[in-house]
């Protein structure tokens, strides 16, 4: 009877997937770490290893810039040992809750050098998408290891070792990214996207950057922004344009139709895919985007 019960529970656990499993971890005494979005949860889980349970407040595919936390989110954060935020204005929607709850928190991007947003209402504010440079995520990993050590001092050596191993993989992905994008011919070295989320990536890879709107917000793709993007694509003869997974690609498809550029595909920035999708982890996200950009701009499929 007991054996059967254990076997049934094992099957049930195997079927429920990772977010339920991590809730189960938390229920079994692992300190709970909540992050504001899925990309940050994956980075944090790499540093935490199996000592901490890590969960994201927003689900995969969610719009994260203007997210409104639910009462359930706030309850989850209240029960957390640590809240991990990106900072740089990305997840300011969570500040008043963490302030009210006095939940311990860490800003993962602390210490990186922000790139200011170039245009429109956000001009001069830091571009929040610092994780789109894997070398910035090296800084995130160090910040997370230090924060995890504060809530679980006995795990200090494990967090340090996990962070070092992850940083090696980040540096390898950063190197491959720059390598593959550097190989593009001069007339294909421009990245045109819906949101201005690629400033860190285009800086690392030496590409020109152009976007329809600077930050996902209510006022997206106003006619003036669409017209300016069409102008740029025509003038620079950019072969392909792209859009991100968490927003509608309608405006960019208009840009493609009006300019004669290819629609090069969907890029991931603000969210991972689900576990069975194309980018279940942050490292997959960078590899997927770099392959999609090269394939789109050159018109050739890339392995
Ligand atoms: Zn974004």
Automatic annotation (TrEMBL):
Keywords: Metal-binding, Signal, Transport. The keyword Transcription does not apply. It comes from Gordonia crocea. It is found in: Cell envelope. It comes from the Bacteria. PROSITE patterns: PROKAR_LIPOPROTEIN. GO terms for molecular function: metal ion binding. InterPro entries: AdhesinB, Bact_metal-bind_prot9, Lipoprotein_PsaA-like, ZnuA-like. GO terms for biological process: cell adhesion; metal ion transport. Belongs to the bacterial solute-binding protein 9 family. This is Metal ABC transporter substrate-binding protein. Pfam families: ZnuA (PF01297). CDD domains: PsaA. Residues 1-21 form the signal peptide.
């Amino acid at each position: 009877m007991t054996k059967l019960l254990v076997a049934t529970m094992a099957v049930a656990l195997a079927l429920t997937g990772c977010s339920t499993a991590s809730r189960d971890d938390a229920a079994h005494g692992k300190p709970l770490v909540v992050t504001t979005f899925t990309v940050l949860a994956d980075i944090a889980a790499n540093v935490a290893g199996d000592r901490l349970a890590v969960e994201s407040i927003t689900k995969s595919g969610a719009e994260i810039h203007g997210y409104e936390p639910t009462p359930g989110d706030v309850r989850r954060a209240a029960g957390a040992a640590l809240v991990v935020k990106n900072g740089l204005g990305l997840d300011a929607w969570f500040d008043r809750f963490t302030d009210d709850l006095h939940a311990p928190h860490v800003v993962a991007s602390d210490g990186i050098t922000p790139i200011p947003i170039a245009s429109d209402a956000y001009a001069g504010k830091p571009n929040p998408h610092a994780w789109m440079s894997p070398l910035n995520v090296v800084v995130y990993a160090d910040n997370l290891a230090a924060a995890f050590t504060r809530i679980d001092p006995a795990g200090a050596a494990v967090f340090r070792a996990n962070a070092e191993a992850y940083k090696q993989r980040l540096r390898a992905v950063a190197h491959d990214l720059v390598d593959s994008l550097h190989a593009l011919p001069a007339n294909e070295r421009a990245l045109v996207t819906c949101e201005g989320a690629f400033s860190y990536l285009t800086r690392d890879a030496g590409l020109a950057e152009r976007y329809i709107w600077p930050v996902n917000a209510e006022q997206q793709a106003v006619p003036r922004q669409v017209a300016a993007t069409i102008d740029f694509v025509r003038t620079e003869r950019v072969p392909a344009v792209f859009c991100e997974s968490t927003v509608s690609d309608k405006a960019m498809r208009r840009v493609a139709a009006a300019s004669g550029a290819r629609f090069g595909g969907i890029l991931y920035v603000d969210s991972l895919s689900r576990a069975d999708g194309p980018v279940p982890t942050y490292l997959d996200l960078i590899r997927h985007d770099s392959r999609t950009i090269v394939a789109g701009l050159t018109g050739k499929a890339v392995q």
